[in-house]
Design brief:
Layout: H1 9-20, H2 26-33, H3 37-49, E1 69-77, H4 82-90, E2 95-100, E3 107-113, H5 116-127, E4 132-139, H6 150-158
Antiparallel strand pairs: 1-3, 1-4, 2-3
Length: 160
């Protein structure tokens, strides 16, 4: 589930500075945002505690790990087996993200693979899970807009 905690304009200024310079120290963030070190440190601790900051691994390019292909596998499942299916999906290392959907498809499974044969193997593992009824695989050909929150943070920080 996504966070329901609201980030205010001060948090947004800190996060925007952190996105611009991810390795910045608390002191550097305080200088950049014109806030006190204690304020920045307390705000970052609060954001981490409430789950508003996600892990660093989101920034690692799977291609650098030897997984240059990304695909989305739309998956239809038996609803009463959903928790068991999710647990089995979690055990497949090439699955980097799974989202539950409303509508025709139940799960959106994001996978990375070494090549087409590897993708075929991974898709087969998913289809072999008891309760998975059908899958449709779409290969990512090009990314047009990377994951980003900066425009939203800028709106919030600027009070728009």
């Amino acid at each position: 589930m996504t966070s329901v905690t609201t980030i205010d304009f001060i948090d947004a200024r800190i996060l925007r500075a952190l996105i611009e310079e991810p390795r910045a120290t608390v002191i550097a963030l305080a200088d950049k945002t014109s806030l006190s070190r204690n304020t920045v440190q307390a705000r970052l601790a609060k954001l981490e505690k409430q789950g508003s900051l996600h892990s660093f691994e989101r920034r690692v390019d799977p291609g650098a790990l030897g997984y240059p292909l990304t695909a989305f596998i739309l998956t239809s499942v038996t609803q009463r087996k959903l928790s068991r299916i999710a647990a089995k999906l979690d055990r497949i290392p090439e699955i980097v993200e799974v989202d539950g959907l409303s509508g025709v498809t139940d799960l959106l499974v994001r996978v990375v693979a070494r090549d087409a044969d590897d993708l075929y193997r991974i898709a087969g593992r998913i289809l072999d899970i008891d309760g998975v009824e059908q899958t449709t695989t779409s290969l990512v050909m090009r990314k047009f807009v990377d994951y980003r929150l900066t425009p939203l943070l800028e709106q919030l920080a600027d009070g728009s």
